[in-house]
Amino acid sequence: MDTAEGSGSGPNPDTEPVGAQKSALADGGGRRAKLAANHSDSRVGREEAQPGAGTGAAPRGWRSGRGLASNSSALLLKRRRLKRHLSAAAAAAGSSAAAAAGKMNSAHSSSSSSMHTRSLDRKTLLRNRQNAQLQHSDRQWVRVDLQRGSIHVHDSLASSHPRPVLCTLDTTAGEIPGDAPPSLYVQLHGEPARRLGRDERPLQIQNDFLFRLGFKDAWRVQEEGMNTELGSLLRFYAGKPITMEITERVQLSGLYNVRKGKLQLPVNRWSRRQVILCGTCLMVSSVKASHTGKMHILPLIGGKVEEVKKHSHCLAFSSSGPQSQTYYINFDSFTEHLRWYRHAAKMVSQRISSVDLSCCGLETLPPNLLYSQDLTHLNLKHNLLPADQKLLQLQSLNLSNNQLGSFPLPVCSILTLTELNLSCNRLASVHSAVGNMHNLQTFLLDGNLLTTLPNELGSLHRLAYLGLSFNEFRQIPLVLEQLNGVERLCMAGNILQQLPLQAFRLLRIKHVDLRLNQISKLVPDEPEFLRHVTQLDVRDNMLTVLDASLFPRLEVLHCERNRITCLRVCGCMLKAVHASSNDWLNCNTVSLIVSTFYRNRMENIPDGLSESKKLEVLDISHNQITELLPWLLSSGSLRKLLAGHNRLQRLPEHVERPVLEVLDVQHNQLQALPCNLFLKSHSLRCLNASANQLENIPPSSLSEESHSILQELYLTNNHLTDKCVPLLTGHSHLRVLHMAYNHLQTFAASKMAKLEDLEEVDLSGNRLKTIPTTIMNCKRMHTLIAHSNAIEVFPEVLQLMDMKCVDLSCNELGEIALPENLPPKLQELDLTGNPRLNLDHKTLEHNIRCFRIDPPSTSLLAHESVMGPAQWSHGYTEASGVKNKLCVAALSVSSFCGTREALFGVFDGDRNVEVPYLLQCTMNDILADELHKSKSEENYMTNTFLVMQRKLGTAGQKLGGSAALCHIRHDPLDSGGCFTLTAANVGKCQAILCRDGKPLPMSVIHNITVQEEYSRIRQHKAIITEDNKVNGVTDSTRIMGYSFLYPSVLPRPHVHTLPLTPQDEFFILGSRGLWESMSPTEAVEAVRNVPDALAAAKKLCTLAQGYGSTESLSTVVVRLSIGEGCCCCCCALAPSQPPPSPGLYPAPSIGLTHPCSASELSSEVSTSEMSSEVGSTASSDEPQLLPEVHLAPLLHPALHMPTGNRCALHPAFQRQMSCTPYCSGAAMALSDNTLDSEDEEPIAGVFSNGSRVEVEADIHNCQSNRTSSTEATVETQAGGITSVDVPGPPPTNLEMEMTAEGVPELGGQAEGENASERDSGQTKSFGCRRGNGSVAPQEKSHNLIEVATEAPCRKMGGYFTAPAQPDPDDQLIIPPELEDEVKEIIKQQEQHRSPNQQPTDYYDTPL
């Protein structure tokens, strides 16, 4: 491995000679002998060495502050976390112990016994872990100088904990101590281990690895090197380890008496050795080199397995060939003897010609393979074989990824070789002897350093496939003119700038791959000489003009992601043209079968397409097309038409029996579909017309009989009403129906009864009050999504046996009658956002994988009495993909490390569940720890992702996932500072901030289209496949996990920090599926007018699914209310005690009666054992309890409150924003009148009948002008919420009266010191939308009004943050009984207002 220079910090005065280091390192446990004298100056030396570590290094002594301020809840969390880690570590240790015991004779008994004692031996586990860690004195010695460090060495023969070894950057592998010093091996991310040379320096290798991973500071690299968890990324072995790939192939193993050769010879003696039956070979450990793990390999194919009669339970294993060898193995029992005989007999009888020894860490080829007669195909990929390795007669040989460094000359002597793979070996040249392999047909040299080819290669006349991708070629090799038989030429990822077509004149090449070059021009040639080319791939180049007509027999053309403005093609053989993502495309098309022109700036469809009689697929989405040609809906060949994201205002009216099966016209400006679309399109199976302006749909038939075979119908985000519901009944085969966010009020039961084949229904975001009971006729129904409606009765869908997902959140559900037996396939039940719901969920959380419900109302009441408004509120949602596999996760900690911070995250594992779950559970703990080590946002965010990479362990070696984190922070030492938002991301998860209604990207997607990333990947010679994935695994160059792709793929994130302003409204975190379905601008516009964060997150997820997304989705929406003066005043009210560490359990305080409640109850993981609020929208804000407040001071502030200046943004009694979904907090004792006092008398005339009445009043400013009005709020939990602003009465004492309808009328005054800062008395209705995002209908059931006059003296921002413009959809919703009275009050107020007086600003109330 290459070593980086300059990693140290300069000369080290304390470093002793090498001889002294040897004696000091003699103890493998990490103790020193002679270097102990350096402890006296450890602190001084550390402080002297610190400047050399870099400017970003934090001082070592900076560990006080919030990190050391612990409380009982933090200790409880640590104990639970330690308990969980112990269980996981015990399971891992047990599995490795069982694997080692499998090699023993008593494999099953040992494994069974370990299982019984594993959970009882935690003290031993703790002791072993403690021994593996460096002692305090050792750490002090290491920290003296950045030239020092430690590595952890593992034993290769037994499963044991690593032992720390102290060393310096000058310590070589030969100086690492041991009883019988074996060779030192290094292993990266679980791949085959490499033997270190005696002069290689292990600590330098470790530091180089960490620097390349992304760590910047030398002192931090030193600290990371002392962590034992680094073993999942980089590990040192004392001796050659047995790789995981070999153990996976192991069929039988154990320790038995073994004798080699003939039994008659007295020289050979019986010895106890390890024997493994692996693949098609018998592996026997070496006696002389047993400490290195050396194994003798005996191929069994074509050999013999015989019973030895003279010895009981003995078998003789013999290989085939003239120089066969024999091993005698004596088993301990007849059962083992019989088992081994049966398995080995099957191998011997086979005649397998292929042997796979890839990823075995072989340094030499097993000698017995040289005598295998039947072997023709040998795979030695990912080994450590030398270039001069002697090889045998083969037909196929794979030596890729062996770090050869030079061309293996012995392969040229294999005359029978037909296929040779030498990719990724850093070869700089090809030997001229390659011309001897006259039978070679496939020659792969991808991923090397080649610039030229030898002329002798031209003698390989049978060569048909030549792979030269990702080398350093600047021009087409001239020797290709001599290779008449080459049919496939791959030169992707080189440095070609021009393509002279004369190079292909004499060739019969059919497939040319020239991706990822720098080609800007094609030098033309006569078409007659290019008639053999059938496939041309010039993706990701710099072409501006492409004349593909020079290839008369071209069948498939790929020219995506160029700069092509003019494309010319011709020929009757052309079948497919893929020309997406170009600047602007003007194409003359011919007879095609597949055409993709998406993401261009085309305004018209190419005229030549109308002549194509065989066109089957046409993709013209994401263009600027305004009209479709009439023939498209009458074509007799077109089966799939994708025309979404254009500017279509109408579709062709002439529809004449097309064979169209898929029609996608989403994101256009359509107001209607062709009236005979369903009448004539008898083959149409899928229609997506979402995000248009449709008000109705065409009929499926003119009679009761319908020939429609439509199965999927997506009509999300239109203007459909109840009139379209009867027209759905003609589609009797409909399986998927998405009609979310329309204007539906009812769905007739008789119409639903006719849709018996329905499997998935999404009716969210409408005005439905019920789900039709006839949904029970849909026996195949497995998904019902109807959130953000006004549904009051829970449908009986849980009686359907195939039901998997039910989402009825953000509705008006009351009691639910659940069946005795839940559906066996039920995986998700979401009932959040139903404030009136009363459900005993204890029996449900153990039977449903993902069960969500609001916390108890008492917690909400108590938490809302916390003083001071919230600066943010959040909601999240998750949805599984088409395979019902939830591969995403969300993280929400609204009170992170105290009430002044918050942390939100989204994680996407693509197709794996493990990585998102690990990120969700662990990442917030890592960030909390990193905050103590650095004040720089970029440093602590970057280090959080890098530390998380090693925390993933073995799961992160082969699996990976995207991640996005957003951290809201306020510096507690800066009283006048503002909140800052820091976003970090890897992969395709992104964060978008809405500022003044416009999206502000906070994330960057790293892939090969970024020049910096592509240059870095080219430097490491990674292979980019045709789907633009690194080594065919991932299309992201920075992502969590996938450590086996290091150094091409790294976990180093993009970090973006900015201060929050009052213009910042909210930000969105979304997984890959969300941003692939909609743009940031569309996402911001979709949820800007949705006040509730949970409903906003739900809407984004539903829209993405309605637009056709089939991926797992996760969305977090965080609404902000950051004012200009909120930081200063909040600091004055900050608690004196240190803020707690993030967790679910707040520190005990006065008045605390109940622990916090989580909003999500999962049957898989108990929230009490989670180290953070994972996957929950519950607020973790720790309530600061107020002293007792009596009613008299509230009613008469002038008599009881001080007259000093008080903050206008924080009244003495005020609840949190009710748009904060499902906050959890400590319950406080509440009196009957719902104030936070325990001993006051109830107010006369106010009755407690199940409704919650809450009074809000500003009591800070007591000397205000008498002309100011009063703000008061009355809220109810029962029924809907109706609100209106009315002017305050003349200044009198605060009075409350109950009307005949039970509606309180509030009046009062609030005085302030500066009347000039007051707004005028103008009032404005503040909206009729519920907190869940649905629109409240005008009904008599809304028997309460929230009366709110203009706000008292206040500044912009904070709790009173207002949008720039009032919501146009807001209406004045009041009960009919009070309509005349309210209108009269408003009319009087308007008459008293002066002409020059401006209307008051529009303010969002807490509801």
TrEMBL record:
Cofactor(s) needed, names only, are: Mn(2+)
Q: What InterPro entries does this protein map onto?
A: Leu-rich_rpt, Leu-rich_rpt_typical-subtyp, LRR_dom_sf, LRR_domain-containing, PPM-type-like_dom_sf, PPM-type_phosphatase-like_dom, RA_PHLPP-like
User: Ranges of Basic and acidic residues compositional bias?
Assistant: 40-49
Identify the residues that the record assigns to the PPM-type phosphatase domain, covering every copy.
873-1120
Q: Where is this region: Disordered?
A: 1-68, 1162-1182, 1263-1342, 1386-1407
Q: Which GO terms describe its molecular function?
A: metal ion binding; protein serine/threonine phosphatase activity
The EC number(s) attached to this protein equal 3.1.3.16
- Bilayer topology: Peripheral membrane protein
Q: From the Swiss-Prot or TrEMBL record, state where the protein is found.
A: Cytoplasm; Membrane; Nucleus
Superkingdom per UniProt: Eukaryota
Residue spans with biased composition (Low complexity)?
1162-1176
Annotated Gene Ontology cellular component terms? cytoplasm; membrane; nucleus
Task: Provide ranges: composition bias, Polar residues.
Answer: 1263-1280
What is catalyzed by this enzyme?
O-phospho-L-threonyl-[protein] + H2O = L-threonyl-[protein] + phosphate
Q: What class of enzyme is it?
A: hydrolase
Sorted alphabetically, which keywords does the UniProt record give? Answer: Cytoplasm, Hydrolase, Leucine-rich repeat, Manganese, Membrane, Metal-binding, Nucleus, Phosphoprotein, Protein phosphatase, Repeat
What protein name is recorded for this chain? protein-serine/threonine phosphatase
Q: Which organism is it from?
A: Denticeps clupeoides (denticle herring)
Q: Which gene encodes it?
A: PHLPP1
